[in-house]
Amino acid sequence: MQKSASAVDTKYLFKRNNTWWVKVAVPRSLRKALGYDLRRSLHTHDIEAAREARWAAVEALRSKIDEVRANGSEDVANAKRGAQLVDQHIVEIVSDSGEGAQKCGQILGLVSGKMGNGVWTVEIIPAEIQPPARERQGASGIRVRMGSKKVTNMGNEADMVVAFNEQVLYSRIDNRAYKQGTVVLLENMWAEDPEERIRKQYREAVADFRAQGLVVHELPIQEECLKVVPDPRKGKNMFVLGMLCAIYHRDVDTAKGEIAKTFRRKSDKVISVNHELFDAGYAFAREHLDYEFELPADPEDRLESAVVINGNTAVGLGVMAAGIEMVAMYPITPATSASHYLADDFHLTGGFVHQAEDEIAAIGFAIGASYAGKTACTITSGPGMALKTEMIGLAVMAEIPLVIVDVQRGGPATGLPTKIEQGDLLASLYGSPGDSPKIVIAATTISECFHFVVMARKLAESFRTPVILLTDANLATGVQPIERPEVTDEWFAPPIDQSAWDRDIAPYNWDETTGLSPRPIPGMRDGEYILTGLAHNQNSKIAYDSASNQEGMNMRSRKLATLSGTLKPPEIHGDATGDLLIVGWGSTLGAIEEAVDLAREQGKNVSSVHLRFLSPMEPGLKEIFSGFKKVMTIEINYSDDPGSPLTNGDNRRYSQLANVLRAHTLMDIDCWSKVPGHPLQPGAIGKVIDSRLAEIEGAK
Amino acid sequence: MFGLKGDWSLEVKDRYFTLEDYCGAEPRWCTGCGDHGILAAVHRVCRDAQVKPEKTVAVSGIGCSSRLPHYMNTYGFHGLHGRALPVACGIKSRRPDLDVWVATGDGDCFSIGAAHWVHAMRYNMDMTLLVFDNGIYGLTKKQTSPTTPIDVPTNTHPSGALLPPLNPLTVTLGVTNISFVAQIVDWNAPLRHEVIKKAHEHKGTSFVRIIQRCPVYVEAIGKALQDEPAKMRLLTHEKGVQVDDNVKRLFPNHGEHDPSDLPAALAIAADESVLPLGILYHNPDAPRYDLMSSVGLDMSVDEKLAGINKALDGFAI
């Protein structure tokens, strides 16, 4: 039955919070340039008025489409709209906790990755779940660095920031996240807050920001969102995502797909509301903001086949690709999300996540599974490592293969739960009573978070020892596109061997040269032995005599020498000789190399080396170091600043890798390290390079 | 008997195990220590069940009790103080085919390992947990344990233990999802054998607290009970322990207790005027975590490869 024309005639019209708008679909071929559709508010709630006004609006929007089509190419269209071509951009989104800034940035990063851009994200996470609103300490957010080429670190100061209130922005200013000219897109609802105190704070802050050289735009984000949802606290982030996708010319389909994926466990209604918010943000930015950036992906840097993941997901995927069957864990920030991921997908490879009653039980459980011939892993962070120390010693002593992933955070004690530090190196190397030689490796990239789990599993079994894999909070939450690994069944742990054991072979039938020995697995007939954490002989019999104790120690240590003999010296980034060599480890790789590259472009004689194996140490270091006038480590952990009160050559405490390298090489290795709770920026490293080069120059 | 079952049918096995097949090194426990009898019972129960020695794993922590694995000719894991249970649970988690025993003590289980005790009871993985409770730290030479009776002098409390002892039975019975709780004394061989056998047969975590004599440090604890059998109460039931009259005669104080009755078991455990012996609680149907943790064991390499690729697809560009 046909209704009367007047009742249904809403062609081109849609209503949002009592205001009529016009919407014109964009032809598929132009969607890259213009988005899905073009919209314009008719500024009326009256349907009759809207019907009348719509034709002019539709006409205007259509001519805009025609204009773009006539110009024939996206680039021209962009130029017309003032899009600026950039090869990289850093944007931050900061909000109170719970407003979804991170989700917004994660999707922006994912979309950019999927468009072929280089991406690096860094999350800004308060330690509390619900810290008080509008306070600096409660700032929650994310930085997204996007580039035409591969991006390896967080970069220096941000180019743009969207802030949900002015106080959280202060927290980032305190962190020197911005520079003169950084564009601030600031929620303006606080200007009309019912509380005078808040209005005043806001007014003063805006003036202050401007005085500091920030380019502040006060935007009615809340007001615009209210047109779509009654409570924008949940959803404002998707409006902002829409804005940013308009500003950075991100692919709308991809973004909407990611939004749908994010809310896949919620109702379709939730997805469509978030899509609407996204569209509103997109339209708002197009209409009201002058900022548009074109950030093309460099085809040369484009990955053949990529996955976009963070370091903890990479660890989880690595666990699956290594054929590990069991992850035993206890919740601890920032490691837990690796287990969250596994809880979702581990069943795909037949694995199981055990949430233990505590950290000790978690590693004990993994040790039990591993002793019984099933490959197991435990994932934790600093305080958990401290609790696991005794068990790690047992695994060393009784030669039980085990992968231990330590996602480092700030210490000591509970320290900085959500923030990065490279503070667990010495504890990993030496943190057990007695001599407990074990393998310690550190991932430098998200890709290595994946591959090093596979390697660690293999090393653990080949060398019958625990392997500690160090990652950190920066890698854990940083999202990056990486080359999709081509998993082969050779990466998997071999199926459990249950053939009969040769009764004449001792359970620790140590090869005197390598220290290696094959391992009987429960279920193997004639392999029965009693594993013990006490000093034991090769028959695994308790043996307190001097000769047996010495022999066991020798054999366990010799395994590291054996592994060391198979390693290659590290590659030098830059020339093999020069004035200054920077030595780093872990997630600082990208920042150090970017700083070194810049310094080298400026003609400075600086190179860098980045270590993956910390125990055994990579070979050839002494020779490499002797090619430079000065060698120093740059790390994110504590060391005494040489200029600080009472610090002198006798008592200066060095950073952790420097400490190890000084002992290892007997060379005077300097260090620069800080504990800022955030990743090192290339700019800061550049300044260190300059100051050390000046010292070398001065010494001449 | 070789291959001959009770109903006179013949089951042909390729191997038959004698007691010797389960006996490891010569025990180094003190003369008169109750541990010797417990070990003998374990050997016998293994022999009677004909579990393959290579499929048997004895796990322990640290202490006199925890030397038990060394005296078994099976696989064994003599680990860290208090940590036998996490290791045992880990072993069982992916190896349902292994027969897991845990030997622990009052210090190892109720003190340093207390957290694991509570949680392992709740996990209810299929294993037999024997707590050798002598009421003292023996290996470290006479320190107060959680179950040292009040006023008993020790090297850490020379004037006598300060607090009333922990009641391990009420604690264990208070844990959600427990499935088997029993108590015995080391010196009554028939009861000891019967309860450990039942514990071993039970599918789930069987908690057996064994009042065990330490003649070197706290002889009085065991002696008091031996001298005055009325201080103990033997619980029998068709669903629990059934012993012949010879055994019952040794326990003037005995009576029926239905082990499926948890409130009754709690009441018995809470009455500290008399020491209950036998099976206090048994629920064969409690959920078992080992059945959950061992999912996916039969997955083929190809399935795993497909699985990881599916996982990667979720992040693919």
Structure overview:
The complex is a heterodimer of chains A (700) and B (317). Helices cover 39% and strands 20% of the residues of chain A. Chain A is globular and about 100 Å long. Chain A is of the alpha/beta class and 700 residues long. Chain A is built from 23 helices and 26 strands. Chain A starts with a helix and ends with a helix. Chain A has a seven-stranded mixed beta sheet, with helices on both faces. In chain B, helix 8 links the parallel strand 7 (232-236) and strand 8. In chain B, helix 1 packs across helix 6 (189-201). Chain B is globular, with a radius of gyration of 21 Å. The N and C termini of chain B lie far apart (66 Å). At the A-B interface, strand 12, helix 12, helix 14, helix 15 and strand 20 of A face strand 1, strand 2, helix 2, helix 4 and helix 11 of B. Strand 20 of chain A pairs parallel with strand 2 (75-78) of chain B.
Q: Structural class of the secondary structure composition of chain A?
A: alpha/beta
Lateral arrangement of strands in the main beta sheet of chain B: 2-1-3-4-6-5-9-7-8
Please list the strands of the largest sheet of chain A in the order they lie side by side. 14-13-15-16-18-17-24
**Helical region count of chain A?**
23
Low-confidence runs of chain A: 1-6, 73-80
Strand proportion of chain B: 15-25%
| Helical proportion of chain B, percent range | 25-40%
The CA-CA distance between the termini of chain B, in Å, is 66 Å
Average predicted local confidence, pLDDT of chain B: 95
| Rounded Rg of chain B | 21 Å
The shape of chain A, in one word, is globular
- Proportion of helical residues of chain A: 25-40%
- The count of β-strands of chain A is 26
